[in-house]
């Protein structure tokens, strides 16, 4: 059963406005607890980035929203969206297949972008399945994250704006999933045309939107209509034999700040043969008393579909879930696990040294007490002199051993330094699962360390062994065993290995 968040904060940073939504999960449903909007000045001389950060801070403060993780979305114009058709693929091979598709579909190297994918068909038994691949240049996403970090906000999720709009509509169940339908999301600089049919969607973004309509009036509306018709044609051509037999929209929703400008509704109705209806992003949300009046203000519903769709992520199951930060989050989780394993191993090693030192010290004190008693009796019991001599010899041996133990205890920093060196040079795709050591108390002897771990490839293990051999603290580094197994969670092949080595103290 999926585990959902108890609350969610989302921001939509648009061209002219910044929108804020806070949702909370209660027994009766999802509640809209906070809503806010700030207009960005259109003065071209201002520092837009600086003003945006200030407005976000003001928006959070005025609506009494505590800083924390937030969900955001990026404009469809900034994102590469590709739809692919997959032949029957086994579930454990999906990730590998989608990475191959992404390399072919995205016009940049995967190291230059953040990307994710989602299946559109929920039925695993179909002969072929459809998926969507989305990608964004890393610098765009990193710039957005940096702005929010400046006001002490961490980014939990980066969604795609048209996907957020579609998820908002699907959540509100204000449509017939069996009919061919569309959402026209008209922003300030770009419009998203989202076509949906039986769980599958298709997205096209074009730069005819509110600013163009405001500038060119009827000519701007005519250009918007032409792009909408062109989008429909593209859709039917790309769908091929999967396209609906009746090439006509059964329903059309409108949203976005530019959707109420001019006479767009009647023009769309005339050209596309379907009467548009305003999308209500709050339809299935419960609204707290504090925000009810705000939510009913004119124009609110037109502008909040994207931010509500982003806020719903993590609160409930949605039709399409993509996150540009997914790979970064997975990397952080893997790094945390590696640090945890390394930390536990170092702590265990330190405890072994401490425990051994305490044990030997206790034994020494017991012998010393015995010796003191014998010396008190030496004047009276001369006959015990040979035994006393023997005990003194044992004391000498123990003293030598204690010197060694003290030397080992003082060298704990060296051990910790070795553990730290291993942690620092540990490759990204190798992690240690078990670490143990045996220490000789004889002077000038070597310690021994045994290590077990996992890696994503044999090459990584060999590279790790070579790095260990290069460290001055180890000698005779040698692999003991290695094997391959499938990870229970991801299904990927994992190499298990064991390594032993001598430690020079």
Describe the protein's architecture and organization.
There is one protein chain. The protein has 505 residues and is of the alpha/beta class. The protein folds into three domains: 1-101 and 131-171 and 281-324, 2-Layer Sandwich (Nucleotidyltransferase, domain 5), CATH 3.30.420; 175-278, Nucleotidyltransferase, domain 5, CATH 3.30.420.40; 333-503, Alpha-Beta Plaits (2-Layer Sandwich), CATH 3.30.70. The chain contains 14 helices and 18 strands. It has helices at 48-62, 94-105, 138-149, 161-172, 210-216, 218-239, 264-272, 289-295, 300-303, 305-311, 326-376, 385-410, 412-425, 458-470; strands at 7-13, 17-26, 29-39, 69-74, 80-87, 113-119, 128-137, 154-160, 181-186, 191-197, 200-206, 251-255, 277-278, 286-287, 430-438, 447-455, 474-486, 493-503. Strands 8-4-1-2-3-14 form a six-stranded mixed sheet, with helices on both faces. A five-stranded mixed sheet has the order 11-10-9-12-13, with helices on both faces. A four-stranded antiparallel sheet has the order 15-16-18-17. A hairpin with a 2-residue loop joins strand 10 and strand 11 (200-206). Helix 4 (161-172) crosses helix 10 (305-311), helix 6 packs parallel to helix 7 and helix 11 (326-376) runs antiparallel to helix 12 (385-410). It is elongated and about 125 Å long. The protein starts with 6 loop residues before the first strand and ends with a strand. The model is unreliable at 333-337 (pLDDT under 50).
